Amino acid sequence: MGIACVNVDLDSIGHYLRIHGLSEELLSPEAARVVYRKALARFVGLFADAGIAATFFAVGRDLSDRPSAEALRAAAHAGHEIGNHSFSHDYDLTRRSAEGIVREVTEGERAIVRAVGTPPRGFRAPGYTVSGELLQVLWVRNYLYDSSVFPAAPYYLAKAAIMGAMALAGRPSKAVLDRPRVMLAPRLPYRPDPRDPYKAGQGARLELPISVEPVTRVPFIGTAAVLLPWPVVSGLYRRLRGEPFLNFELHGIDLLDASDVAVPQLARVQRELNQPYERKRERLRELLRRIVDDFEVLTLADAALKLGSVVE
Ligand SMILES: [Zn+2]
What we know:
Elements: E1 2-9, H1 13-19, H2 29-50, E2 55-58, H3 66-77, E3 81-84, H4 98-116, E4 122-123, H5 132-140, E5 145-146, H6 153-168, E6 192-193, E7 196-200, E8 206-207, H7 222-227, H8 230-240, E9 245-251, H9 264-269, H10 277-294, E10 295-297, H11 300-307
Helix pairs in contact: 2-3, 2-10, 4-5
Bound molecules: zinc ion.
């Protein structure tokens, strides 16, 4: 039986506005915090029903809001792992100076320790972009794993096309386009080459890539699961169920809808907001039921410990 990991990036709604080149001023104070104050508890409930322990990736800066930090603590107490998704979710993280990278990692850690009492053991980079330098910072700080590599061809090509179109329209995106090499990165856990983390090499620590369909490299993530027609989602899952490792990545926004985030300009481009929350929850519930049947479900940290002796 393979290992499956289920994880949620707790990106606040403001980051989506930035990706789409929209002003964060469109957000009410409630909507700015709704991922932590509302979606997080919804996910904790969903995972309790499925009987699984998951991983939540928190952005340090968001934890200065007390109710947000308390919601994260409640998730940790429910048995979930809390991973580091950097301090400020800067899409330019890997282009920062060495000190800038260290600061983003360590301040993210500190905010998590303040909120939940224990340091994170895993990292997910904002915008899925890593570099040898960033991984080196993690390994020096004793992280067990990184889980940022997203070797999805359609995702990369679509992102390149959208960013190009937005630049032409005079509304440039704040997202950062990764090197095309990421499309060829391994799909299954590997030891990243320090000079090129999208290539397998030798090292003590693991990269746990986000799952894509084995042949077409269509992403199997929450956005796809809630937006694509159900037969497609179900078909994608069938292609993955026999794999030794499944890393199902979700976002806080996957359990929110337009009644939680009343920003029509955003709903036009972030289409998962137009699906009612209850419908999305039912889909995810069904997928989790299948995942629990087909895999041993572990947090990413436990998967890294278990795979550490297996992956060459
Ligand atoms: Zn993110």
